[in-house]
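$ ./design --mode recover --in tokens.txt
reading tokens...
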């Protein structure tokens, strides 16, 4: 009697196929975010994404059932990448006072918005025309992002490093500065040294916290 394949064991070759599918899906999501950054939700079409990914539109439907599903996954991928970068910066900085940690996170966020992932600014940093179905998911994405800064700010308040009458207002002002930084500090708009401008922006943002 031949042995049955054990429950939960992958069929030979299935892992390789899965990896190939995951790579292609990630490529589609990356292209979708580029298109979203260029033309927004209303200007984006699956035809554009398929063409730039060099696949047939019919093939695209093997990965995403609709434009909204693709956009939702693209926005979530952006959120996850931003959170990953912020966590990596926290780990690199290590155990430091809250003010130093907050300065590092603000600096990293500016880098993300202006150099490493400017599509984040296009998607999240100013109002754009989004269907109602995206309102709650995007609120949750913003909440998770805000929580990174809020946690450090709360530690600074508890340790006496920060004097903040209303943390919610202060964080809204901080995010406003970061959103504007994506315009002020983008490479094509500046003539001064990028590190110096970032440092000045970080210093200005920290003044919000006393």
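writing sequence...
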């Amino acid at each position: 009697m031949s042995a049955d394949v054990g429950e939960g064991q992958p069929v030979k070759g299935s892992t390789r196929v899965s990896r190939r599918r995951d790579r292609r899906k990630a490529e589609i999501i990356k292209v979708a975010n580029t298109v979203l950054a260029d033309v927004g939700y209303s200007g984006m079409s699956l035809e554009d994404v398929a063409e730039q990914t060099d696949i047939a539109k019919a093939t695209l439907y093997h990965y995403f059932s609709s434009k909204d599903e693709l956009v939702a996954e693209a926005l979530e991928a952006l959120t996850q990448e931003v959170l990953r970068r912020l966590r990596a910066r926290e780990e690199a900085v290590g155990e430091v006072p809250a003010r130093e940690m907050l300065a590092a996170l603000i600096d990293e966020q500016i880098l993300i918005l202006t150099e490493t992932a400017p599509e984040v600014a296009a998607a999240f940093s100013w109002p754009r025309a989004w269907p109602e179905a995206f309102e709650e998911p995007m609120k949750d994405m913003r909440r998770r992002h805000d929580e990174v800064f809020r946690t450090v700010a709360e530690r600074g308040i508890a340790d006496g490093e920060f004097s903040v009458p209303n943390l919610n207002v202060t964080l809204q002002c901080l995010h406003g500065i970061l959103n504007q930084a994506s315009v002020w500090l983008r490479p094509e708009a500046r003539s001064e040294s990028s590190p110096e401008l970032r440092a000045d922006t970080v210093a200005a943002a920290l003044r919000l916290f006393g």
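exit 0
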